Amino acid sequence: MVPGAVALGALSGLMYGVVKAPQYAATSYVIIVPADRTDPGTALGYAQAYGRVAIDVAVRADAAKDAGVAPDLLRSNVQAATSPDAPMISLTAQAASPESATAMADSVAQALVRTSTDTQAKTGVKVLSFSSATEPSAPSSPSAGVAALVGGCAGGLLGGLTLLVRPRRTEEDGYAAVPAPASASATAPQKEPV
Asked: Which residues neighbour 32 within 8 Å (Cβ) at sequence distance 6 or greater?
């Protein structure tokens, strides 16, 4: 049962790896710097705030149009992550092509820079582009071989779990009919009394 489940899982994983289009990821970075006479700790607080609203700000600032994609696609394929100890935000975009992933990450970063320029007088911080996204040379999605290995492991796990949860044999089912071994007293010749 387990070998069959492993084979089925590996075959399923291989099929998924072959059929699924590769995904590429590109990351752009922005940094939040304090303006004149602003406490440096304020920049870290605003980095956390900008990180939470980065995608919404970018959609409102026409980043999707700049990247040449639909706003819903930009919203679902770009993730923002804020560093806990530095006022920096990483913007990672995933797409079916390296060019599209790079364009989405850079357009969101530029939208944040433009938006912060408009609000700099109120916030006391500004967002600067720290690093533009570089075009990925290899997909970030797993290859067909890795998908087959993961599928095989999942199949083995499910096959093993199936063996654990199947019904057990009870006493009512009976035991296999196997003759008991002969005892030494039953087979030894008896001495007759004299």
From this structure: 43, 44, 46, 47, 50, 87, 88, 89, 116, 125, 126, 127, 128
How far is the CA of 52 from the CAs of 1, 42, 101, 156, 172, in angstroms? 48, 16, 20, 40, 63
CA distance 35 to 184: 100
Return the CATH superfamily for domain 21-131. EIF_2_alpha (3.30.70.1130)
Half-sphere exposure of 169 (CA within 13 A, CB side): 5
How far apart are alpha carbons 87 and 103 in whole angstroms?
A: 23
Q: Is the pLDDT of residue 175 over 70?
A: no
List Cβ neighbours of 158 (8 Å cut-off, separation of 6 or more).
Answer: 5, 9
CA 7, CA 51: separation in Å to the nearest integer?
Answer: 44
Cα–Cα distance for residue pair 162/108, rounded to 1 Å = 47
Query: Residue 167, CB half-sphere, CA atoms under 13 Å: how many?
Result: 4
Q: Which amino acid is at 44?
A: L
pLDDT digits (tens, 9 = 90+) for 30-50: 999 988 777 888 888 888 988
